Amino acid sequence: xxxxxxxxxxxxxxxxxxxxxxxxxxxxxxxxxxxxxxxxxxxxxxxxxxxxxxxxxxxxxxxxxxxxxxxxxxxxxxxxxxxxxxxxxxxxxxxxxxxxxxxxxxxxxxxxxxxxxxxxxxxxxxxxxxxxxxxxxxxxxxxxxxxxxxxxxxxxxxxxxxxxxxxxxxxxxxxxxxxxxxxxxxxxxxxxxxxxxxxxxxxxxxxxxxxxxxxxxxxxxxxxxxxxxxxxxxxxxxxxxxxxxxxxxxxxxxxxxxxx
Length: 260
What we know:
Helices cover 40% and strands 14% of the residues. It contains nine helices and seven strands. Strands 3-2-1-4-5-6-7 form a seven-stranded parallel beta sheet, with helices on both faces. α1 (27-38) crosses α9 (232-239), α3 runs parallel beside α4 (113-141) and α4 (113-141) runs parallel beside α6 (164-184). The longest helix is centred in the middle third of the chain and has 29 residues, at 113-141.
C-alpha cells in the first residue's frame, strides 16, 4: 500500500496504549479486551469476579495486561482503579465502560426501589463518576484520550420484557455521553456511545419467555441476533486514530432493527 493507506490498521494509534475495559468478563467485554490486545494495546480487564477476569487476561495476545476485580458501585474505589491502571499500564488512553445491571420485572408493580437503585447506581451513576475519574487522568497526561460508553436499543425503544428501568438508565447514558463530549472536547478527549441491538449474551437471554428470541430475530433486517464479536470493530474504531474527529456520537449497531 502507498500514500494515505500505507500501514493502514483498524487499531491505528493504539499500540502500547493503556486501555481499561469494565464488564470485561461479559460477552462483549471479553471480546473487546481481546480486540484491544490483538492491536497491541495493554489492557486492564475489570469485573466483579477475580477468577473470571484472570481467565480473560490469560487468553489475551501480547503482554502487560492486568486483571482487576472491582465493584464499580463503590465510587470511592474509582480513583484507586484509575491510578492503578496508570501505574501498571503506563497510561490510561481508553476507557470502555461495559459494566451494567439488568433486573427484569414482568409488571411495573413488581419494580421496587431497590431494583431502581441497583440499576441506576451501576449503569448510570457509577458510569459518570468512572468517566470523570478517567478523564481527569487523561487531562493530567496531556495526550488526549477516548471514552466509550454503552447504551442499548432500549434507550430508543423504551425496552421490552420488563426492562423499563434499564432502558431509562441507557437513555441517561446517551445524554451523559453528549454532555461529556462537549465538556472534554477541548482536552482532545472524545466521548462516544455504542448502542447495540440484540446481542446473544446472558444479559439479553436471561429471563426471556419462550419464543422471544425468534420474535426478536424476525424484526432484524440482517436476519440474525448478533454475536458479541460483531461489536468489536466499532469499539476498536472509536478508540483509534481513525475516529479522532468523532465525538458525542451514538453509534447504532443493531443489524437494522433500529435505523437512525
